[in-house]
Amino acid sequence: MNRNTKGFLVFIALMSLLFVLVDVFLWINVANGFDGKEEMRSAYIQHYPNPVRNLQGLIILPLVLLTFASLFFIRSARTNFIKIAGATLAVLLAIFLIWKMFSIY
After folding, report:
1. Of 3, 8, 23, 92, which sits most exposed with the smallest number of CB within 10 A?
2. Model pTM score
């Protein structure tokens, strides 16, 4: 893999991870602000543009992005400490995403 391709994949993996982090923080903010599930769902969906306002897609997309970013960073890490740190971050984010998935339905 040449240098430009690897740099592009690093950028995509970082943007994927950033999207997942923002999505988790958005859901935590919405979950703390509303009591009813319908209110939480509508407030959560309102933060996304019209073409993306699909509740099932907003549950699946972060999981796919997190899987891609985690696999890329763990496979490209050179030291075991970075691999363990990346895997730990991925597990924590996966737990939050699973919590979001179960609390939204």
Report:
1. 3
2. 0.81
